[in-house]
Amino acid sequence: MNLKPKIDFKHFERCFTAIDTHTMGEFTRVVIGGFPEIPGNTMIEKRNYIVEHYDQYRRAMMFEPRGHNDMFGAIVLEPVHAEADYGVLFMESETYTNMCGHGSIGTATALVEAGLVEVREPFTEVVLDTAAGVVHTRVKVENGRAQEVTITNVPSFLYKDNLEIDIDGYRIPYAISFGGQFIPLVDARKLGVEICTENIPFFTDVGIKMLEKIPQEVEIRHPTVDIREVTTLEFYDESPTEQADMKNIVVFGKHQVDRSPCGTGTCAKMAMMHAHGRLGLHRPLINESVIGTLFRGELIDEVQEGEFSAVIPQITGSAYVTGIATYLIDPRDPLRYGFVLGE
User: Fold this and answer.
1) What does the alpha-carbon distance between residue 286 and residue 295 come to, in Å, rounded to a whole number?
2) How many distinct structural domains can be found in the chain?
3) Beta strands 157-167; 319-329: pairing state
């Protein structure tokens, strides 16, 4: 059967239009309609305005019954910078993130697949205005379909090195690197625990405890942009397979685990490796996720970011549209803004 619903949208508080995608396994709900006009002279100001006035809609789109604990999303807005096609704010079950690699790939794919940018073959350029800065994406297009996306990220750099933190009586060494967001990086070999799906509970437990404690011990402050949060942490190791160089597991939000190799995490790790003399320019790095999907990374330039020596990283991966939906906020619904089990 092919039924056509006849719903009177005037009965609803809000109607959101979204394109659902996944990037190498990690979900992105790309919200392309329904949010009110968001004022702000920067994308950070726009994000802060949403936090103050419309955070209930983030919860509605990320939490049950429309989502779940491991949700991730992107809000497409008017850009601030003239060179950008669209502004985008990234959100997850806990908060907002300044930049997201897999989310940028998913958003660019959705915009191309939906015809919301001028599509050209073999490559379509889509410029995104994020809270971390302007991000250029290059979408490989064949027969009108997005095949893969290369993002050129913001300047990335090693922020602090040779740190240690006490978690459950253990001293864990780590570094903090910036790849669009500040990401603590932990060598899983120092913990003696293999990166695999069976050990996800261990890594989420340790990772969330570290994320809660690190801001109490380390000042987080970007030299040129108002970014002071640390919300994502990466454990890494060498890949046990020939298809990749490194393997990771990335935790964030409400005990969330990234199914993709994490774009900002890959950028942060490449910046750290470059600072350590372990990764030069124009040398590919294949990064593997905990479920075995891959990103291809490369450093294309060296720059200065405030007092930090930084690099410009690129990440390449593929995303796929999994659905298009209209989500409704019914004012009669006591759970209209979502809920999380256990809270």
Assistant:
1) 6
2) 2
3) unpaired
Q: What is the pLDDT of residues 45-68, one digit of tens each?
A: 999 999 999 999 999 999 999 999
| Cis bond before residue 184 (omega within 30° of 0) | no
In a domain, 334, yes or no: no
Q: Is the pTM of this model over 0.85?
A: yes
Of 273 and 4, which is predicted with more confidence? 273
Rounded to 10 degrees, what is the CA torsion of 166, 167, 172, 175? -80
How far apart, in whole angstroms, are the C-alpha atoms of residue 335 and residue 113? 32
Assess whether 202 and 134 both reside in one domain. no
Residues 221 and 179 in one domain: yes
Does residue 95 form part of some domain?
A: yes
Single-letter amino acid code for the residue at 260: S
Establish whether 15 is a catalytic residue: no
pLDDT at 343 over 70: no
Contacts of residue 34, defined as CB under 8 A and 6 or more positions apart, other chains included, come to: 14, 15, 16, 17, 57, 327
Q: Which domain holds residue 25?
A: 11-153+321-329
Give the model confidence (pLDDT) of 81-131 as tens digits.
999 999 999 999 889 999 999 999 999 999 999 999 999 999 999 999 999
The whole-angstrom separation of Cα 208 and Cα 232 is 9
Same domain, 105 and 163: no
> In this structure, is residue 77 part of a structural domain?
yes
267 is catalytic: no
Name residue 315's amino acid. Answer: I
Give a yes or no: residue 145 inside a domain.
yes
CA distance 70 to 61: 12
CATH assignment of the domain containing 161: 3.10.310.10
Rounded to whole angstroms, the Cα distance separating 321 from 301 reads: 32
pLDDT at residue 73 is higher than 90:
yes
In terms of domains, do 312 and 185 share one? Answer: yes
